[in-house]
């Protein structure tokens, strides 16, 4: 029995970041799955761990850790195993630059699109009174707004267009960076790659007109190389829903 417990949803976006970091490091952990589409993250029991009602969260002994990127950095420092943050200060800066850019600017746009096309439609057929009660108990006002918009289809055309624009800019930036080096932010596989994979693994399916072998060969090379890693395969095998099956697109090799 490990003294590490990870509270997570599918290996995807924020939950997948600490899952994959733990598995890359070879750190055993207890997996506590929360079904985001069943609003498990707002259950009173879980709010004792993370009062914000978001996932992931991790406990290590009596320490409680939240924020997916900060958890990954903790995991890299606190446990043995391959280093996912190199010692060179410029590499560290580049890795943190990319993680901040992805977390703050790019991921919210991916998320808005995902919530609009997948999360909202997945839950809106539930009983209306139950949905209202579930939304009303969400601790963070901004998350309540996001859930309402997703469930009732209220994301505006302007905000969806801005998210799509950011996804386009982000894809171009990833392609440019990956045309200069093998990995995203240093010459070694790092936390920036773990972070980026969780954001981008389904791009060839979700944005096929912007990310494919012809337009973004370096992104595809990079995604396939990460998916070929045993830790990534093991991590995605932990998924419980069809969502994770999207990663299978990376098993297809490019035939010119
Ligand atoms: N900045 C936080 C964001 C956490 C977050 O918003 N997670 C999403 C899932 S990717 C969540 O819990 N959403 C559920 C909700 O808002 O109810 C982190 O990186 O850990």
Task: List the main descriptive attributes of the protein structure presented here.
single chain, 256 residues, alpha+beta, Glutaredoxin, Glutathione S-transferase Yfyf (Class Pi), Chain A, domain 2, 2 domains, four-stranded mixed β-sheet, 4 strands, 55% helix, globular, binds glutathione
Span of the ends, CA to CA: 49 Å
Number of DSSP strand runs: 4
The CATH architecture of the largest domain can be given as: Up-down Bundle
Shape: globular
Low-confidence stretches: none
CATH class of the largest domain: Mainly Alpha
Largest sheet, strands/sense/barrel: 4 strands, mixed
Task: Give the count of structural domains.
Answer: 2
Helical residues, percent: 40-55%
Structure description:
With 256 residues, this protein is of the alpha+beta class. The protein has two domains: 4-78, Glutaredoxin, CATH 3.40.30.10; 89-251, Glutathione S-transferase Yfyf (Class Pi), Chain A, domain 2. It has eleven helices and four strands; from the N terminus they run βαβαββααααααααα. It has helices spanning 13-25, 44-47, 68-78, 89-123, 128-136, 141-152, 157-180, 191-200, 203-206, 217-227, 230-236; strands spanning 4-8, 30-33, 57-60, 63-66. The protein has a four-stranded mixed sheet, with helices on one face. β3 (57-60) and β4 (63-66) form a beta hairpin. 37% of the residues are buried. The model has no long low-confidence stretch (mean pLDDT 97). The site of glutathione (GSH) has 12 residues, from α1.
């Amino acid at each position: 029995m490990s003294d590490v417990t990870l509270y997570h949803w599918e290996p995807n976006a924020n939950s997948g970041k600490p899952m994959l970091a733990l598995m890359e490091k070879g750190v055993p952990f207890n997996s506590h799955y929360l079904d985001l589409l069943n609003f498990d993250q707002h259950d009173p029991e879980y709010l004792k761990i993370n009062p914000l009602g978001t996932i992931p969260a991790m406990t290590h002994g009596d320490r409680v850790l939240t924020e997916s990127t900060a958890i990954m950095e903790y995991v890299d420092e606190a446990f043995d195993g391959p280093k996912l943050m190199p010692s060179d200060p410029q590499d560290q800066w580049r890795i943190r630059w990319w993680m901040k850019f992805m977390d703050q600017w790019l991921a919210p746009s991916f998320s808005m699109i995902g919530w609009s096309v997948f999360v909202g439609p997945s839950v809106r057929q539930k009983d209306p009174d139950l949905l209202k009660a579930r939304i009303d108990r969400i601790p963070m006002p901004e998350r309540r707004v996001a859930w309402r918009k997703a469930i009732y289809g209220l994301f505006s055309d302007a905000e969806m267009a801005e998210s799509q624009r950011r996804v386009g800019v982000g894809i171009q930036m990833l392609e440019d960076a990956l045309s200069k080096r093998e990995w995203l932010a240093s010459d070694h596989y790092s936390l920036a790659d773990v972070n980026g994979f969780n954001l981008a693994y389904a791009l060839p399916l979700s944005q096929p007109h912007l990310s494919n072998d012809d337009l973004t060969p370096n992104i595809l090379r990079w995604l396939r190389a990460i998916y070929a890693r045993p830790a990534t395969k093991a991590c995605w095998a932990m998924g419980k829903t069809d969502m994770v099956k999207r990663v299978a697109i990376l098993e297809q090799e490019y035939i010119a």
